[in-house]
Write a structure and sequence with these properties.
The protein is an alpha/beta fold. A 7-stranded mixed sheet has the order 7-6-5-8-9-11-10, sandwiched between helices. The chain has a 4-stranded antiparallel sheet with strand order 1-2-3-4, with helices on one face. Strand 5, helix 2 and strand 6 form a beta-alpha-beta unit. The longest helix is centred in the N-terminal third of the chain and has 13 residues.
Length: 230
């Protein structure tokens, strides 16, 4: 699988294309960057990453002081920025990543994205769970101190119809149940959503707030934060 793109840094080059249980997923190269496309919808690329890192940093900062070895669940491996950020922080204990697309996992384990995430995947705290996030949250008995979720372009712009269940009252109840008391839910979005903020309050979360990351054009990327009461 090639990991160099060629002289035209503007034209995307398809590096791999897979058909899976959730449709088509494509890895493209553009210059020195990579892009992930799902069913024709742009998901993310490696050109920035500030908001993906904020997803992890904001969740850790919102945890109560002195909590030993907090466990974090990252929903969506993506291009690996959130995982890499978590792995560089020694305060995290267990780092679990739920990713339903086997192709994306393969691109990190043995493909071009390994150059981004290789060290983080080798970290003994890291565990990859090849599962659907919504189903995992509904069925697991594991609990985490932080849920850092980035599986869509946001609550108002889902990649697949089933993902909307994550942001429903039932899905948010599952998130709350999977958190330890005082645990933090952090949700990435390509745009702010006051409706989602209200949905978090309706689901029994406190401390609901939104942190923005300004982008060159358009509305800012954001991280929605909420806390399960201690």
């Amino acid at each position: 699988m090639p990991d160099s793109i060629g002289p035209d840094t503007h034209a995307p080059v398809t590096l791999d294309r897979r058909e899976g249980p959730y449709g088509e997923v494509v890895l493209r190269g553009r210059g020195d960057d990579f892009e992930i496309i799902a069913n024709g919808c742009f998901l993310m690329d490696t050109s920035d990453g500030r908001s993906e890192r904020l997803l992890i940093d904001a969740a850790l900062a919102a945890l109560p002081d002195g909590r030993p070895d907090p466990a974090v669940l990252i929903g969506g491996l993506g291009v690996g920025f959130s995982l890499v950020r978590a792995a560089t922080e020694p305060r995290w204990g267990r780092i679990a990543v739920v990713e339903r697309e086997q192709a994306i996992v393969d691109w990190h384990l043995e493909g071009p994205l390994a150059r981004i995430s290789g060290a983080a995947l080798a970290d003994p705290r890291t565990e990859i769970l090849t599962r659907d996030l919504v189903a995992y949250l509904r069925t697991t008995t594991d609990r985490y101190d932080a849920l850092c979720l980035d599986i869509d372009n946001g609550p108002d712009w889902t990649v697949t119809e089933d993902n909307s269940n994550l942001y429903s009252p039932a899905g948010l109840a599952d998130c709350r149940e999977r958190l330890t008391p005082g645990g933090v839910l952090a949700v990435w979005s390509a745009q702010p959503s006051t409706d989602f903020e209200q949905a978090l309050r309706n689901a029994g979360f406190s401390g609901v707030r939104t942190q923005e990351v300004r982008v060159a054009r358009g509305v800012p990327d954001v991280v929605h934060l909420a806390v399960r009461a201690a």
